[in-house]
Amino acid sequence: MHMNTDPDVDVWNILSHAPASEYEKIAFQYGITDLRGMLKRLKKMKKEEKKSEAFLKKLDPAYQVLKGHKIKLAVEVANEDVEVKWFKNGQEIQKSGSKYIFESVGNMRYLTINHCSLADDAAYTCVVGDEKCTTELFVTEPPVTIVKNLEDQMVMKGERVELECEVSEEGATVKWEKDGVELTRDESLKYRFKKDGCKHMLIINEASKEDGGHYKVKTNGGESVAELLVQEKELEIYQSIADLTVKAKDQAVFKCEVSDENVRGTWYKNGVEVKPDNRTNISHIGRIHKLTIDEVKPEDEGDYTFVPDGYAFNLSAKLNFLEVKIDYVPRQDPPKIHLDCMGRTADSTIIVVAGNKLRLDVPITGDPAPTVIWTKGEKASSVRPDGEENAGHSACWTLNDGEVITEGDGRVHVESTKGHCIFTIEGAERQDEGVYSVVVRNPAGEDTADINVKVVDVPDPPQAPKILSLGEDSCIVQWETPHFDGGEPIIGYVLERKKLRSYRWMRLNFDPYPETTYEARRMIEGMTYEMRVYAVNSIGMSHHSPASQPFVPVAPTSEPIGLHVEDISDTSITLKWRAPERVGAAELEGYGVEYCKEGTDEWVPAIQGLTERSSMTIKNLSTGDKLLFRVRAYNMAGPSPPAVLAQPVTIREIMQRPKIWLPRNLRQTLIKKVGESVNIMIPFQ
């Protein structure tokens, strides 16, 4: 089919020579919406072609024009004085307005149709007397482009997936592919296709591992690709339950936090399921599960376990019942700190996770009730012989008969009950780590004790990772360990990547990766990416590192081809070659030329840097040396395999180039009978 608006595309000719199996593909490519009607109209036109006396040149069988453009239909008549009439679908076209323009120039007759719309898609006829010629005009819409690309997605197995793009025209036809295979409506049980104006969506209700791959949406004017990663569901433990030591009448709280707020679970004591009652409460709010036991009794002591529903593991901790026995002592009994009742020694360290509450509950005795002094840093000193007290260095908190006399940080609370002094910090921070001293005094004497407190936290984020090398669909990334590990050893790292202009980061590993060098794969060559890293210890995961410098996965080019010697002298040589057959997604940066003496492997660059030309003259060589030469092409990914001359070249001038003198009798065809000998003498110099 002739197309006046674009003479390079003859859709009629393409359809005429294409097999029927290719019709739908051609229709999609050139924006033909009514393929069956078009083929029917074209077939009819072919049958009507015949000789004419009135027309020297008839209308072409068919024309094609883009919506909104104009088209000129032309015929050449035998009689330049004859009048012609133009018809559309059998109705004569009248001269009115600027829609249709009729022209008569010599033997040529023209009909121009301005601002073509889909209503102008019709059969047009030019009539001269009793003769006529007819053509079909096909009005097609401009190519549909993709204005909002697909985004990479990572989902868990069983989750719903929506891949969405936006195109330039409402009601446009698009095709979806997965890993190069077209997705059809026949697979509606698996995939669902949805249109909403200019938006097109591919929906997978319950993603499986097999659904992972590269998905492509195509229009007749563009395409977009995104990667879908489907991961098995793994429940992460953000906070495990911890052992508790609780006194009678106190409250015991077991608490854990998991990654999925929809996961339920069951609590067990010594293997028997725990049921709620007037002292026992079980709660599940978001990702946090709690078991609370009020007014703890000795029979509450035991092993407590939380089992998430549907997962083959559990979280366990022990509840220890602490029974403090204080023997009756006469009045004026010196104060005493009983750390041994807490199961601790002077060298014990209390570990608290940053952000959690630090609670130091110390049993004490003494009559009358002693004054309690808490200090952090240097110990509060004893009373000097002159009766004056040494001022404790750093923070200091004092209680007398349960009343707070001095108090420091607003996060700190101190209290005293019968037989106990309690020191609490809300939301422990790193600077709260250190040695805490408690001094108890009454008129009968004093006692002191030190408690070591260690605050552990998630690690600091690593520095921005660096890209060491690139491949066609991969890269090697490296990073430094964090400056601070949070007080606990680093278990490993979690990596993420994203496309440069995307907002969605995709996790590359779920289990912590123990090394600081990682090979990331399954990227698209020529696409720009960024990487970032998280550090993980037993407490949790750090904030993410800054993003790496943007990078593009590319492969080196293939080797240059056709390397040969163009010219040679006593001190120089000229080499020529052609560009590699495969350059890849990255731009060719140039060529590196090297040489080495025969029998050695020390390659010497012919020039510093690269040359963009495909030839080079290497000067200042030693006469008589036998040298090997090689050329490598360079792009962003580095050097290609080398193109090497097959034989060493001796550096010396060629006085006279070889020449063949072909005798006149050999310039004609030689004819010999079978069995005769053939002896050809060819002189050369």
Automatic annotation (TrEMBL):
Record has Membrane as a keyword: no
UniProtKB keywords: Immunoglobulin domain, Repeat
Domain named Fibronectin type-III: residues: 461-560, 561-654
Domain Ig-like intervals: 53-140, 142-236, 250-305, 335-452
Entries under InterPro entries matching the protein: FN3_dom, FN3_sf, Ig-like_dom, Ig-like_dom_sf, Ig-like_fold, Ig_I-set, Ig_sub, Ig_sub2
Cross-referenced CDD domains: FN3, Ig
Repeat among keywords: yes
SUPFAM superfamilies: Fibronectin type III, Immunoglobulin
Top-level taxon of origin: Eukaryota
Protein name listed in UniProt: Myosin-binding protein C, cardiac-type
Species the sequence originates in: Goodea atripinnis
